[in-house]
């Protein structure tokens, strides 16, 4: 295949059963004048929103974008009053199908979370319905990109936005697989993305790159610059030189020493393997996709998800503001991560902590679970608000292999206490009434124990 040219069509890459559902949504878009776009507020959802918005803009369609952490009766009633021709829901919706069926107008759901059922009244696109893994093979942003490509295949240049969402959803760990891999490979062949392999530290002085590293999170180094200076000096390396400018021999030594640190602090095997990773350059935008994903993530976690969408859409003025938010996000999250190095609350099968910021709890749980929490127990983060409590939970691949399914656990336990929950087997969330935290965590503890015992018995 010649570089910059490809004969692969969307139908050559995307399974027919999935593409058929997406094309139904495209048909609804063709006759719509104005569309309402509703996406989850996290990086995957923000990237999905940007992808859909860019697609509709190129088609000359009117649209209004909203990012939210929850889809409930209050938001549904607002949408009903608007009288939209079309509602497109991405990176959420599969757990609220019955609610969405009551919307006026036509609705398309592009979600990769584990569904509780299907619908004949709306266009429901979910990889799980055709046997694809929504945890690893395709995310909300990549589904939105497939939708975009089905509208017009000139939208291959939106690959970087979709990949930023996939990285934000941690689907790049150990390399992209499945449908993600096929789509991004095609984008490479069209030179929309350029792949490089390098150490997963930022391009800044070594001491800063280490102290500001969240992926990987380095216990004793991340957030502690003086310790990073001492660490660099102990290796005979200049703390003021960028990791990329170190001699090859020094980069190998640095990688080995960081891997040893991660092993000692209990990092998951897949997390250790990402010390050296494939990064993707976006020639059209002049930025690495990984950097864009980190900036979008910071905007989402700091309550400025709209800025993240603007950044993904190519607003150059949003870049400096997003960098400031990235610094603020780092300072906030590092405090929680440092505190949790001392330990957290534990039940028989789960561990849990409290985080007053609901937009940060999931990130804290995810980073900690990958890099230093007790890997034998899933973790739950509670954010207690005025009337409700937001819940974020994370597991790891080893626990999932043992039978853990956090999506089912969150859904079942939340329903018991008058809330709602769902997500993936390895990462899920819930919203429950305030004051029900103790009962909820006890229920999840029982459910997780049952799930893993059932798998053990079956084996």
Features:
single chain; inorganic pyrophosphatase (n-terminal core); 3 domains; 6-stranded mixed β-sheet; 5-stranded parallel β-sheet; 19 helices
Description:
The protein is α/β, with parallel strands linked by helices and 459 residues long. It folds into three domains: 10-190, Alpha-Beta Complex (inorganic pyrophosphatase (n-terminal core)); 204-334, no CATH class; 345-458, Diaminopimelate Epimerase, Chain A, domain 1 (Roll). It has helices at residues 10-13, 16-30, 43-58, 73-82, 97-100, 140-151, 159-168, 178-189, 206-211, 225-234, 248-264, 269-273, 289-301, 305-313, 317-340, 358-371, 397-401, 406-416, 437-458; strands at residues 34-40, 62-68, 86-90, 106-110, 123-125, 194-199, 276-282, 287-288, 345-346, 351-354, 379-384, 388-394, 420-423, 427-433. A six-stranded mixed sheet has the order 9-10-11-12-14-13, sandwiched between helices. Strands 2-1-3-4-5 form a five-stranded parallel sheet. Strand 7 (276-282) and strand 8 (287-288) form a beta hairpin.
Structure in a nutshell:
It is built from 19 helices and 14 strands. It is 48% helix and 16% strand.
Proper CATH architecture of the largest domain: Alpha-Beta Complex
Share of β-strand residues: 15-25%
Q: Helix amount, in percent?
A: 40-55%
The CATH top-level class label of the largest domain: Alpha Beta
**Segments where pLDDT lies below 50 for 5+ residues?**
1-5
Helix count from the secondary structure assignment: 19
* Biggest β-sheet: strands ordered side by side in the sheet: 9-10-11-12-14-13
* Rough outline: globular
| CATH topology term of the largest domain | inorganic pyrophosphatase (n-terminal core)
Number of domains: 3
Mean pLDDT, all residues: 93
End-to-end C-alpha gap: 46 Å
Radius of gyration: 22 Å
